[in-house]
Amino acid sequence: MSVPEQFFDTNVLLYLLSGDDAKADRAEELISQGGYISVQVLNEFASVAIRKLKMSHPEVREVLAPIRAVCAVTPLTEETHDLGLQLAERYQLSTYDAMIAASAFAAGCTRLLSEDLQDGQVLESRLRIENPFTGCPGA
What we know:
With 139 residues, this protein is an alpha/beta fold. It has helices at residues 10-14, 21-32, 39-51, 57-70, 78-91, 95-106, and strands at 6-8, 35-38, 71-74, 111-113, 122-123, 127-130. It has a single domain, classed as 3-Layer(aba) Sandwich (Rossmann fold), CATH 3.40.50.1010. The protein is 50% helix and 14% strand. Strands 1-4-6-5 form a 4-stranded mixed β-sheet. A two-stranded parallel ribbon has the order 2-3. Helix 3 (39-51) packs antiparallel against helix 4 and helix 5 crosses helix 6 (95-106). The chain is globular and about 35 Å long. The mean pLDDT is 94.
């Protein structure tokens, strides 16, 4: 599988379940191209889907199965954790956002697709934050 050098933040995956058709379609288009996610992204997605969207565990697994089929999943390691703490301190990111960025680095990605982080920011001169919903109605 040839995987693009893009990493998806949890919010991009959650838009697949959104009532916002423009953002849901955009998320589906991007994810279908492939890329990377982390175990943290899977955990956050499951937590929100179960707690806020009231989905069952089998429903969550059903939604995640095709995502996992097209996206490589990066593990959480001590090295990822250490880098995440450094990124949080250097760029004033939340711990969880910094761990997402650290996972993107570990995967060798050059783009981190996120609606929550600063669009256009470049971390460590090699990872660009991009809001994939810029230009979508309501964005």
